[in-house]
Amino acid sequence: MLHRIWLAFILCAFIATLWQVLFNQHLGGFQEVMDAIYAMAKLSVEIAIGLIGLLAFWLGIFRVAEHAGLIAKLSIVLEPLLCRLMPEIPKGHPAIGSITMNMSANVLGLDNAATPFGIKAMQDMQSLNNDKSSLSNAQILFLVLNTSSVTLFPIAVFLYRAEQGAATPTDVFIPILLATSASTLVGLFVTCWVQKVNLFNKVVVIYLLLLFSCLGAVILYFSYLAAAQMASQSSFVANALLLSFIVVVLSVGAVKKLNCYELFIDGAKQGFELAISLIPYLIAMLFAIGMLRASGLLDIVMQSIAYIVNAIGFDSRFVEGIPNALMKPLSGSGARAMMIETMQHHGADSFAGRLASVLQGSTETTFYILAVYLGAVSIKYSRHAVACCLAADLAGIVAAITVTYWFFG
Q1: How far is Cα 2 from Cα 101, in angstroms, rounded to an integer?
Q2: Are 5 and 337 in contact (CB under 8 A)?
Q3: Which residues lie closer than 8 Å to 333 by C-beta, 6 or more apart?
Q4: Mind listing the pLDDT tens digit for each residue in 90-147?
Q5: What DSSP string runs through 248-291?
Q6: 318-328 confidence digits (pLDDT tens)
Q7: What percent of the chain has pLDDT over 90?
Q8: Measuring CA to CA, how many Å separate 154 from each of 114, 172, 218, 289, 364?
Q9: Which long-range contacts does 199-204 make (Cβ < 8 Å, 24+ apart)?
Q10: 381 — phi, psi (to 5°)?
Q11: What is the H or E stretch that residue 353 is in?
């Protein structure tokens, strides 16, 4: 799927450039596209190098958190809820532990740890699956919760915003939290409705009430703030939580007599390797998107959509985020490249740049997760998994646009 999209970008950009040269007499079109390719290739390396320090720092902190047992403790909080939402999994089954570890790692933004736990969870649930060629209800709900991606600390988005020169990289924290919560709740409700899971169970109701209370408090608090205060307050909350998280992790590690320094170094090494490994993916997607932009095709498409939106009386600024929204379910690297290119073109602190950031943090890469997790257990039939995941994606996109207007409109 992704390679077809990538080739389509390149071919469409070439045809658009050829049209400009032959019919609009724009003889510098090919030069502009080649300049864009070189610029995007250079930008990809600059981004990766700029991220080395930040990624190394956070992966070092996360390594200490993992060994300090904080992820395991967080998983204990989720277990009672999961037992009710996935009744086909017996209490105490290894699948519960794998699922809670995966979700806990996702909440803390530990993507590298979340994927192995997710594969293990799928394998554990597969042992209970009577039809080995089709997803079970528990596996489908697990996939929906993964693709909707509630992340308490969207570190990666903050890192890219900082790299692109955002004055306050964390000012999108609350908008992302609200958007990803909406995505998860819609995915949960739709899936439970399809699977006829009782959401009025006492334990489930308590968890949902707690979640809605927290979200309601956040919305109520920010609804009383002026537009200019929302971004600063969101940044304050994010920075306070991040700093507190760092101190708590290192303090717990010290109390447990862990060698926090060595663990941090091990994690930081992984961050260095991860930053370098991003270069090929960034180059591949950024140069294709750069070609689209330089050829004028992307601007024509966006202007056409904006014209239609304006004609029916709506604010069309959200249109600049449509490419990111469409790419996100298909490819993580593609969506990341779209976000970076949007911030590069419009500015990290522009409405479009902030919207791209919120969209990036609102959901996960649906088809990538489906491909990896289904492939891990050799399942051919996904049943209603794709429809439920896409419903969560759509809710996340709508919520991201709404809260971006609310905070930065």
Answers
A1: 29
A2: no
A3: 278, 281, 282, 284, 285
A4: 887 888 877 877 777 677 665 555 666 788 888 889 999 988 889 999 999 999 988 8
A5: HHHHHHHHTT--HHHHHHHHHHHHHHHHHHHHHHHHHHHHHHHH
A6: 888 888 887 78
A7: 22
A8: 14, 9, 17, 24, 12
A9: 201/84, 203/80, 203/81, 203/83, 203/84, 204/81, 204/84, 204/85
A10: -115, 120
A11: helix 351-362
CA distance 121 to 95: 5
Residue with tokens 């939290």: 177
CB-based contact 145:187 (threshold 8 Å): yes
| DSSP code for 24 | S
User: Mind listing the pLDDT tens digit for each residue in 289-320?
Assistant: 788 878 888 778 777 888 888 888 888 888 88
Q: Is-contact 43 69, C-beta < 8 A?
A: no
pLDDT, tens digit, for every residue of 63-106?
A: 888 788 886 776 677 788 888 899 888 887 888 877 877 777 67
3-state class of 134 per DSSP?
strand
Tokens 């009430």 belong to 209
Calculate ∠ Cα 53-54-56, nearest 5°: 65
Angle at 143 between CA 396 and CA 379, to 5 degrees: 140
What proportions of the chain, in percent to the nearest 5, are helix, strand and coil?
80, 0, 20
Residue spans of alpha helices (H) in 68-154: 70-85, 94-107, 111-126, 137-148
Residue 243 CA to residue 265 CA, distance in Å, equals: 19
Q: How confident is residue 288, by pLDDT bands cut at 50, 70 and 90?
A: confident
- What phi and psi values does residue 134 have, to the nearest 5 degrees? -125, 150
What average pLDDT does the chain have?
83
Structure tokens at 146: 């993964």
Q: Are 394 and 362 in contact (CB under 8 A)?
A: no
Instruction: Tell me what percent of the residues of the chain surpass a pLDDT of 70.
Output: 90
**Alpha-carbon gap, residue 62 to 113, rounded angstroms:** 10
Calpha distance 181→184 (Å, rounded): 5
- Measure Cα distances from 351 to 107, 177, 218, 346 in Å: 26, 18, 22, 8
CA distances in angstroms from 302 to 105, 293, 298, 320, listed in the order given:
37, 11, 6, 7
